Amino acid sequence: MRETVDVDEAARQHVLSVLEADDGIQRADPDWPEFVRRLDVHFPDLCGLFRSLYGSRADWQDQLGALVLQCARSWQERPAGLKALDAEREGDSSWFQSNRMLGGVCYVDRYAASLDGVRDRIPYFKELGLTYLHLMPLFLAPEPFSDGGYAVSSYREVNPKLGTMEQLRALSSELRENGISLVVDFIFNHTSNEHHWARRAAEGDPEYSDYFWIYPDRTMPDAFEQTVREIFPDDHPGSFVPLPDGRWVWATFHTYQWDLNYANPAVFRAMAGEMLFLANQGVDILRMDAVAFIWKQLGTPCENLPEAHFLLRAFNSVCRLAAPSLLFKSEAIVHPDEVALYIDPAECQLSYNPLQMALIWESLATRNVSLLSQALERRHNIADGTSWVNYVRSHDDIGWTFADEDAAELGINGFEHRRFLNAFYVNRHPGSFAQGVPFQDNPRTGDCRISGTTASLCGLEDDPDQAVGRILLAHSVAFSTGGVPLLYLGDEVGQLNDYQYAMEDGHESDSRWVHRPHYPAEQYARRNDPATPEGAIFAGLRRMISVRAEAPELAGTRLIDFHTNAPGVLGYQRPGYGRTVLVLANFSDGPQQLPAVTFSGFSAAAVELLTDTAHSLADGITLAPHEYVWLRVTPK
Ligand code: GLC
């Protein structure tokens, strides 16, 4: 202990001397003391993390010095408006936990043609109530295969088809003026094979070869592949792909996405530089892509390793120094125990909630809420200062990421149940209402995931009435359990699967494009016509959004379970001061009657918020099929 204190003090002195010696730093800058103050507060964390990751290298203190210098320079370049935002958010650190938060996500080109097109849609975003806009990857990427932009060729250049960095900056300020935070991806597990680091590596440059996991022959790849799972088996088996010169490079996802080697501190520094560059363009939240994969260690699955957490924390410390208002959202689509480990104010303040997402679909298929209730009861509450991002579906496939142990407790066999769910959602199960498409069907492992828009998975093509009920029911969970609800834009008007993807260059072999349709203009035009499914979905969602924004109980994430004693009816409580919102949601196909005794813990007088009607719990509650109610009740 004493030794590490001494070591860290020596590192601090070294870092201070590096800053002292640098001519580029403007010490007369009125904001400089603020950096010095931040360094005092956050250096111990950053230093400890950096030492854990790189302390075995002789040059680790030099690397740390160079990193802090980079932070100092970036802070000095940070625009005044963003520094003002930093100060504002520091005074209101729970801003993202408000019940007024509402997220939307879209592809710039498919939804609005360009960044300027996104700007033109701001009035609509305000109509909807958005406060958070996630623009899917918009940086320079290879053509035509780029995994929807998840293969980045430059973090500092916007894809010219979408616009320019200047336009992104302008968009971010205009969004902010309209109360909308900008979210973009930080795709930091890999670059594209066209990134200049990758090109230099492919040419054999040793400095850049060290930026990636490159081996001269199959010895190490074979050894790693003993314990690493395949992510996109349709694309290539295993985790490595050959280079023209006979070497092998690590590519977890597609052949053209090369994993960065964070065992090399130069990579950490380089990516911290790219991150701070994005922060200074006005990005509010970074979606930390593929967090589970960022550290590799022979003999392990190379997912969710402790060092992956150290790295995220170190990136977070870098933000605290140089872009303090920036937040991280974790994208960990892994076992729920592992998902939870990324959620921490010092790591990722926000996280996708893939378990809730998957179990909403599971409940719709089974008409039984036992797995979803269990998940809410034991896995929903997270640390203060953090929040879920709850969603019904994303741009990605649906994977059944529930824990087999949890399912077993309920007498459910995880493997069999996933098989049933896959068959159900690709309409291979008798009685299925869903029009999904398989994704990465892996006959060797029996693994498969599901593609499809919300409306198509709910069967809007075949039975609009039932489907509208399911669509609203699914969203009612994401909008009321606690956290930021995130809409896939277009789903609020019931957009359907788009099978044209099979004709699109670069998309044909990736069924996820079926649920990434173009802006559904005609459906949007019908959004205010209550006689149409579009109008019914839009009105239902708008109502949830406005009621949520006025219900302080729905802020934050805290949830208390509530047992309805009806297998098809989900229940939970969102506690407020003296009052509680009790949510009930009927996932069964028939009406459900809950007797008065179910509510004996509450006073009889209740108000249903969505319809603004009074109820007496002394009469019990009857729910129509797919009905959901948000009851404001008073615990006795
Ligand atoms: C994330 C993205 C996914 C992409 C992958 C590789 O999981 O959500 O779309 O394929 O990362 O970057």
Descriptive overview:
The strands form seven sheets. Strands 1-2-5-11-12-13-14-17 form an eight-stranded parallel barrel. The protein has a six-stranded antiparallel beta sheet with strand order 18-19-20-25-22-23. The protein starts with a helix and ends with a strand. Strand 15 (437-442) and strand 16 form a beta hairpin. It has 22 helices and 25 strands. Helix 2 (32-54) runs antiparallel to helix 3, helix 3 packs across helix 13 (306-322) and helix 15 (354-366) packs antiparallel against helix 16 (370-379). With 636 residues, the chain is of the alpha/beta class. Among the domains are: 196-259, Alpha-Beta Complex (Oligo-1,6-glucosidase, domain 2); 558-633, Sandwich (Immunoglobulin-like). Bound molecules: alpha-D-glucopyranose.
Number of strands: 25
Helicity, as a percent range: 25-40%
Classify the secondary structure makeup into a structural class.
Answer: alpha/beta
Our measurement of the CA-to-CA distance between the termini, rounded to an integer number of angstroms, reads 51 Å
CATH C-level name of the domain at 558-633: Mainly Beta
Strand order of the largest sheet: 1-2-5-11-12-13-14-17
Average pLDDT taken over every residue: 97
List bound small molecules.
alpha-D-glucopyranose
Beta-strand content bin:
15-25%
The CATH superfamily title of the domain at 558-633: Golgi alpha-mannosidase II
CATH topology of the domain at 558-633: Immunoglobulin-like
What kind of sheet is the major sheet? 8 strands, parallel, barrel
Contiguous uncertain segments of 5+ residues: none
Q: Kindly report the oligomeric state of this protein.
A: single chain
Query: Which shape, going by the Cα principal axes?
Result: globular
Radius of gyration: 25 Å
Number of helices: 22
Which architecture name of the domain at 558-633 does CATH use?
Answer: Sandwich
